[in-house]
Amino acid sequence: MFIFALFTIPTPSMERNLLVGDYLYVSKLHYGPRMPMSVGIPFIQSWSVPGVEFPYTRLPGFGEVERGDAVVFNYPPDTGPIDRRMHYIKRVMGMPGDSIAVRDKVVFIDGKAYPLGYGMQQNWLVTKENARYQLPRPRREELAISSIQPTSDARIVRMVATPDAIKEIADLPWIERIQPEITQQPQASLYPGDRGYTRDNYGPIFIPKKGATVELTADNWPIYGPVIDRYENRNARQMTESTFAIDGQETTEYTFQQNYYFVMGDNRDNSQDSRFWGYVPEDHIVGKAVATYFSRSPSSVVPRFSRILRGIDDASVFREESVMTQLPDNVTP
User: What are the positions of the active site (predicted)?
Assistant: First the structure.
């Protein structure tokens, strides 16, 4: 209960660093064990004694959440006691107090670019000199390319791959050009909604930090209002275009009571993450994923022996010399 937890990866949102069928060891000691927030039956995640909830308390840990950590947390939009909500795993991109934005798929934090890191993947548009050319299956498997799909142009295919794989493919003599697939259509399902954001061009938005005070405006209320009301447990509402009330008291500002994080999947174009449902509050964090203790593809009975007892990359995924800065001339970063 206080030292570790075991989880499995059910979806491809963290590929290629974490695969469907990976079984994870999650350390609760890194950030400090979170005390129970409800009463229920052990190992029965979805049920608890109705009406019995305890305030958030975390014992001291030997570390803190850092950018690049793969963290397991309770899914914030769920209902019910926090520690009974569904478990998710994503990578921390934005820290408390950061301003985060995405421009043409590249994450910017306080103006600094964080290109796609080691083992992360996204959609690319690969233009071939001739539609007949195909990447052999053994080579595709060797490069761990998740999928190759046709487009309306016979010479162009949509490829889900890491920057390392794209660098190798770009050297093939029959490859004319490679560029990221940029989504142009605004998506209303993104957080906070109705901002014209896409998954590839998002923000900037400020990530709340404990003790930080923000001025409340009609423009930022859709961002901070739900956080104050849902995660800070305050009765927050907008009274008029320019006035707001918290616990019945009219105010023009608010000071946050806990830290928040912005998380994203390593498989950037196949991940429901903070771009879609917002921040992860500190009290929702379960622990840090540190290793895979077992792994098996759902389509096979044979374990993936190379992934057993394998450590999980954290901040090292953001290598100082990113592959994205070393791509050949025929690749648009």
Answer: 13, 90
CA 116 from chain centre, in angstroms, equals 13
Closest C-alpha among 214, 218, 222 to residue 243:
218
Instruction: Give yes or no for a contact between 236 and 245, defined as CB atoms under 8 angstroms apart.
Output: yes
69's CB contacts (< 8 A; 6+ apart) are: 91, 92, 288, 314, 315
**What SS3 state is found at 27?**
strand
- What is the sign, positive or negative, of the torsion defined by CA atoms of 23, 29, 30, 35? positive
Q: What pLDDT does 321 receive?
A: 55
Please tell me the distance from the alpha carbon of residue 298 to that of residue 303, in angstroms, as a whole number. Answer: 10
Q: pLDDT under 50 in the chain at which residues?
A: none
Residue 315: what pLDDT?
61
**What are 125's two structure tokens?**
């548009």
pTM, 2 dp: 0.93
Catalytic residues: 13, 90
The secondary structure of residue 78, as a DSSP letter, is: -
- In the chain, count H helices and then E strands: 4, 21
Predicted confidence at residue 40, as pLDDT, reads 83
pLDDT recorded at residue 241: 86
Distance, CA of 270 to chain centre: 10
Q: Among candidates 164, 99, 141, 91, which has minimal Cα distance to 325?
A: 164
Q: What residues contact 161, with CB distance under 8 A and at least 6 apart? A: 121, 122, 124, 143, 144, 145, 146, 169
Distance CA 284, CA 238 (A): 26
SS3 120: strand
Task: Give the pLDDT of residue 316.
Answer: 64
What is the rounded average pLDDT for all residues in the chain?
91
Encoded amino acid at 11, one letter: T
